[in-house]
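Tutorial handout. Part one gives the primary structure; part two gives the three-dimensional structure as tokens.
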Amino acid sequence: LRLVLRLLQGMLIGVGAVLPGISGGVLCVVFGIYKPVMELLGDPLHKFRTHVPKLLPVIAGAVVGFLGVAKILAFFLETSPAPSVCLFIGLITGMLPSLFREAGEQGRTGENRIVSGVTFAAMIFLLFSLQTSKTAVEPGLGAYLFCGFALALSVIAPGMSFSTLLMPLGLFVEGIGHLRPEVLIPGMTGCVVTFVCLARLVNRLLEKQYAGMSHGIFGIISAATVMTVPWNSFATSPETASRNLFCMAAGIVAALLLEVMNEKMACFPENETE
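Part two.
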């Protein structure tokens, strides 16, 4: 059952990586594996033996979700985009209370709350700017390197959506939809370089400034959730609004069930993270 749960979580992370507005990093935080993922990326030589066996089902599920399930999701996004997004929003919303509790595990000060507010406001501004951007970038080596950077950033920086970063620049279809060698090689290079440069820094911040970092992440995730809600769809008709609310409620219920399962079958309990 634990293996199935981890595979399911990985698939959701993979799908979240390509779902507009949703971040794979957000779902890593939601499922309680963000810290071990950063530990592995920040120090792969020393953490490989302890972390990879436990994260392997999640990694396998993420690959399936990113490459396979995402195609199925694309169908639902085309036929019922708002309900599909609302389901994921409900999933994240249902986990926000537990994320807030976890952020305060080592104490909570007024400064921590200010950090949450500042990151919330900054993320709202950034995502709004990206959504209203009309900039287009020609496909090429630099553009594909940026695709890899965006993919890595969506894991390292929860709330920074991979597709949200790329679609305003006109890179999503060209850069990711066609996995040709001239696209894949620079894309993977940009991804690896970003992981190497930033994951160790994030891991150090989590070790030294856990409360501040965790509250900052909470603010980012909250802002990303608010900005992802398809607000316009709620005004189209009462039937549409009801359907969206139902999907959101279903996501919240699923999140609460996943949280219960996470607590009973933790992949990285506290006494194993050292």
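Part three, for discussion. Residues 270-274 have pLDDT under 50 and may be disordered. DSSP finds twelve helices and no strands in the chain.
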